[in-house]
């Protein structure tokens, strides 16, 4: 005979398994909305489409749901901790102060949930002090792409993708999917050259660092995942050089920079013509690097954002030098970037190598570019139907 399991120990051990959080809602005999928070929601079957949750046998809401015969699962996002607490409280005032609406099928939908799933009760199985309520799905949608609310060891938290992925900001979700595909390929490039390999993308009016792999031989990393900079000239040229509209918007965003020492349109043309982008070190770039080292624009005050923007506006001469053979210029190459194209020939992100050795010259750049382009092509091929776009890009054709 095995020892009886101590309930406290059971709870403690099971608390090590994180769950998502859902509010299961329905309506009572008087037509009033009811709901409860569950961490036990799970999908069960595709054909027929079944889901389940496990309410305690004493749950009043569960009894109401079984009587009503229908329920709605509202998947809660990281921004809905308050809703989770309300639905986990006992009593009849769980909907007080919450935004919600009746769905066309007469079930309560909690505003701003990640997804809703409407069900009819398919089966209820007893299991110890809980029931297993299985629902047959009648309608569902995920209208709000956002990060989920998680519950772990008695506390709320949010999803933080592994080391490579960026900060938990909803506008990055689509980009993070791309990064998942790029990750192993970036690791290879970083390890092969002993450099830092970065993936960044244009998100709104910012350029956002989505992922990093490896550390340069010197050990110093220059970039923080989630870091945002204003996407204005001369930053992120490879992200705009293959789209007239994007390049136009990029230049327009910079506004009137009468002191600018360079023509941003020329940068665009240069990058498009050679297929890659290069930055060399300058005092202005060093100043920018050190001031944004630990921060992202999103976390900055308007004043901080302006200060970062001013530093970007001082850049110019170090970006896209025409001739890296020119020994009199003593270029120190800071980074090389190439575009990654999707199936519609749009640039979805750029891959960059950072931390090149001090003596790196044109021949080294050629090698990095070759490997980076190969990596970008492989990343493109992992995107749906992207093979053709990638090979066009590598062959030097101008996809648009
Ligand atoms: C994150 C979280 C997850 C929960 N998961 C469940 C669950 O899976 N099953 C359950 O019976 N109660 C669960 N609860 C507790 C119920 O939400 C709580 O007991 C609620 O008051 C039940 O309300 P009722 O008595 O109106 O049905 C959870 C609570 C929280 C905070």
Structure summary:
This protein is α+β, with helices and mostly antiparallel strands and 400 residues long.
What does this structure look like?
With 400 residues, the chain is an alpha+beta fold. The chain folds into two domains: 7-158, Electron Transport, Fmn-binding Protein, Chain A (Pnp Oxidase, Chain A, Roll), CATH 2.30.110; 170-394, GAF domain (Beta-Lactamase), CATH 3.30.450.40. It is built from ten helices and 18 strands. The strands form four sheets. The chain has a seven-stranded antiparallel beta sheet with strand order 3-2-6-9-10-5-4. The chain has a six-stranded antiparallel beta sheet with strand order 15-14-13-18-17-16. Strands 1-11-12 form a three-stranded antiparallel beta sheet, with no helix packed on it. A hairpin with a 4-residue loop joins strand 4 and strand 5. Helix 4 (173-193) packs across helix 9 (362-382) and helix 9 runs antiparallel to helix 10. It is elongated. Flavin mononucleotide (FMN) is lined by residues 21, 36-40, 54-56, 59-62, 84, 87-90, 151.
């Amino acid at each position: 005979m095995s020892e009886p399991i101590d309930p406290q120990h059971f709870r403690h051990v099971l608390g090590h398994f994180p769950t998502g959080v859902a509010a299961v809602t329905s309506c009572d005999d008087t037509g009033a909305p009811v709901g409860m928070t569950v961490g036990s929601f799970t999908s069960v079957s595709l054909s027929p489409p079944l889901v389940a949750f496990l309410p305690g046998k004493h749950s009043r809401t569960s009894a109401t749901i079984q009587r009503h015969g229908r329920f709605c699962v509202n998947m809660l996002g990281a921004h809905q901790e308050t809703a989770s607490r309300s639905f986990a409280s006992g009593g009849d005032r769980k909907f007080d102060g919450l935004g919600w609406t009746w769905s066309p099928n007469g079930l309560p939908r909690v505003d701003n949930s990640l997804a809703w799933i409407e069900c009819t009760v398919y089966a209820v199985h007893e299991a110890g002090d809980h029931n297993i309520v299985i629902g047959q799905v009648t309608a569902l949608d995920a209208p709000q792409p956002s990060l989920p609310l998680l519950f772990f060891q008695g506390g709320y938290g949010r999803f933080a993708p592994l080391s490579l992925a960026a900060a938990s900001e909803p506008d990055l979700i689509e980009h993070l999917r791309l990064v998942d595909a790029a990750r192993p390929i970036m690791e290879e490039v970083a390890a092969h050259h002993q450099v830092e390999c970065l993936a960044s993308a244009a998100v709104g009016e910012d350029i956002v660092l989505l992922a990093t792999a490896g550390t340069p031989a010197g050990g110093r990393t220059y970039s923080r995942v989630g870091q945002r900079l204003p996407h204005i000239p001369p930053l992120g040229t490879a992200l705009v050089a293959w789209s007239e509209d994007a390049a136009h918007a990029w230049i327009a965003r910079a506004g009137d920079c009468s002191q600018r020492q360079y023509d941003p349109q020329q940068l665009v043309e240069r990058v498009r013509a050679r297929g890659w982008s290069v930055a060399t070190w300058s005092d202005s770039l060093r100043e920018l690097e050190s001031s944004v080292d630990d921060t992202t624009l999103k976390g900055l005050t308007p004043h901080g954002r302006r200060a970062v923007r001013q530093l970007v506006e001082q850049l110019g001469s170090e970006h896209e030098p025409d001739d890296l053979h020119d020994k009199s210029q003593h270029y120190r190459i800071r980074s090389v970037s190439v575009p990654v194209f999707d199936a519609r020939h749009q640039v979805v992100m750029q891959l960059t190598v950072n931390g090149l050795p001090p003596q790196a010259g044109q021949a080294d750049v050629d090698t990095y570019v070759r490997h980076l382009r190969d990596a970008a092509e492989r990343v493109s091929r992992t995107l749906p139907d992207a093979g053709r776009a990638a090979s066009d890009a590598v062959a030097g054709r101008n996809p648009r």
